[in-house]
Specification:
422 residues, 2 domains, disordered N terminus, alpha+beta, disordered C terminus, 13 helices, 5-stranded antiparallel sheet
């Protein structure tokens, strides 16, 4: 009799794993057992798009996700090659109880609504081949997370409030066209000049400042800003230089203010202060903007070291804990036009979430009702030894911890915002 009872219990247990009526959950592990970390974020986003809730299990198996079981979601994981475990309600409850233990640095954050994502990119107005290597465009596409694209005109028209999350990459908000031969073509430059003239700006630098100020207002109003590479650096330079001509004659036909450095207003910048802007090297000269870039003077840099993520309290410092979820805490450095941020120019109000011995790599801050993250470097899996116009094939890097940091930011606006307590 005992043997038949045991077999019956085993049968019920197995059936319970696959019958929706048993109200099972799906656990998507994000530790080393995950077959595709990057696409797992796409599953989480799809669940949110389908108006279902996602539980983000902070510091549990690499920052795992837990969702309500449906056959559709289970099949979606299988189709996308994402590891998933169908678990009982009892086990799901046990996991939540474990994470609630005050002695453990773990917690559950509920994600409730898919953020509407937009990328600021010149691909909106032209070919802009260099943008094909934008790490965020690459990973959003790979993870199958939908997004829209805007550029200067859409921002000047006031379209940003339609979105929750805005990404900037290697844009030059100072109006100096990237200060590099390879950054922008004649067509790219002409497109910006046309938009500037259409909206009544005498110079591209004036238009870019207006765009930067509008983005800052979007963030202060409750939006989320994520910037990488030179966009993070030039965004702050443009804001601090409001009303000051820092653009040399090579770019706009007249000279920069010789006293420009002393006229910078660092109260207007977001993340950096007391930085020194680089003098005019002439268009198609050097590609450095200021000493914000810790690799300044060497243009594109190829670091050989690593940077480390800080271990934040999942219960007390919820926001940075979400933004640093990973299966690895030591991450290989990667180059960029702005590779990393010099420690001495980072504002005290900015929270450093990742650093190397010589620079800060990953910053977070708040403006008004909104938040921003600045991430140094161009492509977490980029290789300077090859053609820099060749986009990274993420099929070769499905476990990239550097790319995971980008996707943490994509999901963050879906969580109910909580202020840091420390």
């Amino acid at each position: 009799m005992k043997r038949y009872l045991s077999l019956a219990l085993v049968f019920l247990s197995v059936v319970g794993r696959f019958v929706p009526g048993w109200a099972n959950s799906i656990l998507i592990p994000m530790d080393d057992q995950q077959s595709n970390h990057l696409k797992a974020y796409g599953i989480a986003y799809k669940v949110l798009k389908d108006d279902q809730e996602v539980e983000w299990l902070l510091n549990y198996r690499g920052g795992s996700f837990m969702i309500k079981h449906t056959t559709a979601f289970e099949n979606e994981c299988r189709i996308r090659g994402v590891s998933a475990e169908v678990i009982s309600d009892a086990r799901a409850a046990s996991i939540r109880q474990q994470l609630a233990d005050p002695d453990l640095n773990m917690d559950v954050v509920k994600l409730q609504k898919a953020a509407k994502i937009v990328v600021y990119s010149p691909i909106k107005v032209g070919p802009a081949e260099f943008e094909n290597t934008d790490a965020v465009l690459l990973v959003l596409t790979y993870a199958e997370i939908p997004f829209e694209v805007v550029y200067d005109e859409e921002i000047l028209k006031g379209d940003l409030p339609k979105y929750d999350w805005l990404h900037l990459h290697h844009e030059d908000f100072t109006g100096q066209y990237g200060r590099n031969l390879h950054r922008q073509t004649v067509a790219d430059i002409k497109a910006q000049e046309n938009i500037a003239h259409k909206y009544g700006y005498a110079k591209v630098s004036q238009m870019k400042l207006a765009v930067a100020k509008t983005i800052k207002e979007f963030c202060a109003g409750g939006g989320y800003l994520f910037a990488m590479c030179s966009a993070a650096e030039t965004f702050d330079i443009a804001l601090a230089a409001e009303g000051v001509d820092i653009v040399g004659s090579s770019y706009d036909g007249d000279g920069a203010d010789p006293d420009a450095q002393s006229k910078l207003d660092f109260s207007k910048s977001v993340a950096f202060e007391n930085f020194t802007i680089d003098s005019d090297n002439g268009y198609r000269g050097f590609s450095t903007f200021s000493d914000i870039n810790s690799a300044g003077g060497r243009s594109y840099d190829q670091p050989a070291g690593f940077f480390e993520l800080f271990n934040f309290s999942a219960k007390w410092d919820v926001i940075p804990a979400m933004l640093t979820q990973n299966h690895e805490s030591i991450i290989k450095e990667f180059f960029g036009q702005t590779t990393a941020f010099r420690k001495t120019v980072v504002k005290p109000s900015a929270l450093v979430m990742g650093e190397s011995k010589t620079s800060d790599r990953y910053l977070y801050g708040e403006i008004g009702r909104g938040q921003w993250t600045f991430y140094g470097g161009h492509d977490p899996e980029g290789n300077r030894g090859g053609n820099f116009r060749t986009p990274t094939d993420l099929n070769l890097h499905p476990h990239s911890p550097g790319y995971r940091l980008i996707l943490n930011n994509v999901l963050f606006p879906s969580a109910k915002k909580k202020k840091r307590k420390t």
